[in-house]
Design brief:
- This protein is mainly alpha-helical.
- It has one domain.
- Helices cover 59% and strands 0% of the residues.
- It has four helices and no strands.
- Helix 2 packs parallel to helix 4 and helix 3 packs antiparallel against helix 4.
Length: 102
């Protein structure tokens, strides 16, 4: 069964965002999405909605904490490449967080 992920408000107005298809939902794409949000919250990359670089260290820490919780809860059931990706993302995000917190 295919689920339509298009925005109902956009459909109601007759507008659709056909810029790019959504990536397949996997554990890796999920944690990369959370990590991308953390990078925006750390002010490392522009917010895709506003184009502005702004940091919010409280939200960044929350995103890092979510990824840490996922690492702990999924420790025994991840594929080796998923575990390595999650560990690497957390290492980089924690390092950037500490540098910003300075």
């Amino acid at each position: 069964m295919q689920i339509d992920h298009s925005d109902s408000a956009a459909q109601a107005s007759g507008k659709r965002d056909d810029t790019a298809p959504l990536p397949e939902v996997t554990f890796s794409t999920f944690i990369m999405s959370l990590a991308s949000s953390a990078l925006v919250q750390l002010g490392e990359v522009p917010n895709p909605e506003t184009g502005k670089v702004q940091d919010n260290l409280l939200l960044a820490k929350h995103s890092i904490d979510i990824l840490t919780m996922l690492q702990e809860k999924t420790r025994s059931c991840l594929e080796p490449d998923e575990a390595k990706l999650l560990g690497s993302l957390l290492y980089e995000l924690r390092l950037k967080y500490v540098m910003h917190k300075g």
